[in-house]
Amino acid sequence: MRGNNLKLKEVSVIFNSKIRALEDISLELKSPFYAIVMGPNGAGKTTLLKVIAGLLKPTKGYIEVYGYVPHRDKGQISKLVSYVPQLIQVDESIPLLVKDIVMMGLLSSRKAPRIPLKEDYEYVDKVLKMLEIEQCKECLFSELSGGLKQRVMIARALVRRPKLLLLDEPFSMLDFHMKCELAELLYKLYTEIGIDILMVAHEVSPCIPFEPLVILLNKRVYAVGKAHEVLRPEILRKVYPGTVEFKNLIVLGEDHG
Amino acid sequence: MVDPLLLRVLIASLLSGVLVGISSPLLTLAKTLLTGLSMIHNVLAGGVLAVYLYYVCGVSVPMIHVALIYVILVAILTAELVERGYPPDTAASVMIAISSAITVVLSYFVATKSSIAIAQAWSLVVGTSSIITLSDISLLIAASAVVGALVLLFRREIIYIAFDELGARSMGLNVRLYRYVLYTVIAILAITLTMTIGIIAAHITIAAPGALALQLSRRKYMHLSIFIALAIALGGYILAYIAYLPPSGGLGIFAAATLILSELLKVKR
Prior knowledge:
heterodimer; A: 257 residues; alpha/beta; Rossmann fold; B: 269 residues; mainly alpha; ABC transporter involved in vitamin B12 uptake, BtuC; 11 helices
């Protein structure tokens, strides 16, 4: 690692010369961080994660992840950053066993032919145990519940021993109890292993007990701060215009808010 | 004493069964079955290109070499289109359109030079196991070895990319390279089957084993696919031999029977 921060300076992403996904994003996160990016649909949340993961080159601006430029230093970034995509992007009809999915996370950083060694199997077992899914090792991914699937995807990311875990809507398709369990698990990875967490979520409440850093995004960054600083009606209204405030309750102007 | 012709047919069906059995599930999982079937149509353009080079340009290169290079080139171009965001069926259709245009235009020029040249090109795609030669068997052995090695080496990555392409990219897997490998496997499979067992039989055998195996088992589908491919190939040819049918007819009947049987098995379970 050449640096300890995640820095974005005036980053813009424009698709097909007209669709603006991100506009002049400037942001600096100092490691260690446990952060959530929230914003309405089409706010550019996934685009932001893809730019950080090096999957997308910004149209303009500068980005640095632990001292590396993601779209240029792809090799280094793929070692430091693990990306957990949305579950809907995964083709569950492909019959893969949990252990094979997690193993691929480990083997992908090696050159072909990727033949697993004894210690690889042991390490995969260790990670599965840490995430409390060792009993699912021989299961097909499609046979698992939403919460377990999400854990498998996190296990696949963790076996790579990343410094930063990027999660795209990890709470989608989970009930509230599972969301809270997952938020706690991610917090454990942050405090016990020292992994930086940056996740996209529509719902912040499962993470509130862990005092996350909240980034309010709607193509631009509208606010960055602790949850109690950002989740205020006057700030939220800038991004969610239909926000209504009740006593001890804020309803965002979005279906999924 | 076994009829030497029947023996060759059995060997060819065994080899083509193995070849199809190992590659068909990969095509099904990577959602490239349609590409595989369409690739068969590019073989004719390769054959016409070979006769054009010989009769019009005076360049003598064995037809199979020209066709093989052409089909692999088409396969890689198709893969590149997919890599650039085209849906696989659109990419395959674009390449078929180009190949068809090449076939028609070059056929016109070749026809002005020789009356038998086009028939030579067509002979590339109407191969049939009932007149299988030793060189066909050698081709099947070589193709099985190459396809087998590629599938064995890269199966894990290709399936993984089909499962989660974005995740695979983020982990640093060279998705483009693996797509090229997959489409090269498809090209070799298409040309080998077309030349040895014929275009109709190739159509019948290429898709069924993988698709049926995946319907029956989500865990042991590779073994099952090889078994089904062998059953269709051997059963189809034996049926054709006994009932005096064309081989593709025997294969078609056997493939349909296997499909019905697998559906019955599914219902029973």
